[in-house]
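Board notes, transcribed. Complex of a protein with zinc ion.
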Amino acid sequence: MDSRNRSRRTFLWQGALTAGGVACLPVLGRAQEPPVEVDGGPDLVVINAKIYTQEERQPRAEALAVTGDRLLAVGSTERIKALATKRTRVIDAEGMTLVPGFIDAHTHPADSGVSELMFVDCNRPAVAEIQAAMRERAAKTPAGQWVAGFKFDDTKLKDGPLTRTHLDAAAPDHPARVLHRGGHTAIVNSAAFKQLGITKDTPDPEGGKFGRGSDGELTGFVAETALKVVDRGTRTPAVGPRERQAGVKLISEMMTAAGLTTVHDAQASKDDFQAYQDALAAGQMLFRTYLLVVPELLADLQRAGVRARMGSDRLRIGGVKLFCDGSASERTMRMSRPYVGRPNDYGILVTTQDKLNDAVLAAHQAGFQVGVHANGDVAIDMVLTAYELAQRLAPREGTRHRIEHCTLVNPELLKRIAAAGVIPTPFYTYVYYHGDKWAQYGDERVRWMFAHRSFLDHGIRVAGASDYVPGPFEPLMAIQSMVTRTDYAGRVWGENQRISVAEALQICTLHGAYASFEERHKGSLAAGKLADFVLLEGDPHEIDPGRIKDIRVARTVVGGQTVHPAAESGGRQTR
Ligand SMILES: [Zn+2]
């Protein structure tokens, strides 16, 4: 491309952006205006699609044109077709639905990628099957080395509970740990306790729990800070930079296949950050990533002079992640009323108000976005208190601080969230996938959990989030879950929180972009924005809502490049 072409293209994009939409683009002008051809023409056009743009000015379209990694124009098939030249690739969508690329605003890609690569998949319906999988891995692992499983889910077991003794039988000569898919609890075996020096006389650490039977013996269950004690002593399978890079490659293939084009890593460590950079440099990271880093890195970032949002549209540092309470799916979140059937159990707090205030203020004053993990209403109240205090002490415009998960709300919390401009990221696949867990909260409380309807009604820009591994990451399952509030077994949970397909799409696209300050660049389809989009074989607006999750993702495009499927298909390429 010569400089003349480059400046011409720049001009077109600026024109589109400064006028705030596509209306000013000559190609989309009134019918009598001849289409203006960009020199050389666009790199790619998609025609005959049913496009939902997420743009107020032009909500529907049929076709789009891409130059480089940006959208050049969005409009009718007739007009976009007229833009194509000999060098333009043309994809005929043949009536398929096209939406902006999905954004998962809270997930753990690098971490889950390594787990997918290295750990035993314990997402199995019977204790014996988990034992068999762990036994098989133990047979290939030198005695004394750790055998690690993940994606275990107590409520998906036909039998159980899974205990230390089951793991002793499967791996008598190896320390073994089976992590719950929620990530806050695990089951470990006797060899593990022995190696860690933990006995039945070891007291529970503050904010944590070692499960004990009626005889006082350890059951193998470890929760919250007790799991941290186990983790610190755990030498899980040797994971180095190479495995972590391979993990990012694998998870980016899995997630883009489901239609995700941007993912927010909600707890990025130094190792994760390096893994993303390695995979990106090797051309293996297919999605875009926005990072909330662990608080330990804040001082280092400040020392290095790194400011919030440093990076590129492929990989960006944005915020700091903190923790306040336990988990929704593992029933340890801190609430003002106890769990059903457990009158003394209100859940777990992992910090104090004072500590939280200090940590929030430090990140806030450093200019970073803050995202605090808070599931229960007590924890959400604490986080809002910390945000309100930080704002009083060091007022700052447009902080867009977040409450990660923000599971259980009430009218008063909703008002404070709206007033503070805070972004909640509630689980978007939980109602469908984790239905069996909601009985422990009771019907009345579930009406205020994952409260997508309430957030929208309060004008809160709620973003979509899987928290994968804890929740499945498939955005189409998420849309079905938010729209139907019905679980996999057909049970309805909090139907008052149902939202429309259009609202669910907005949450999964534009609101996700807003959560990372990137709504000017992604989350909707308009000239000048990044060419991130997904072709779907069905229209979620028209299909039976109970089957939305079965719609096939035909093609995922990130920055104008098809990243799924690996071998091009999805729409007929006419040249
Ligand atoms: Zn998380």
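Residues 106, 108, 266, 467 surround zinc ion (CB under 6 Å). DSSP finds 19 helices and 24 strands in the chain.
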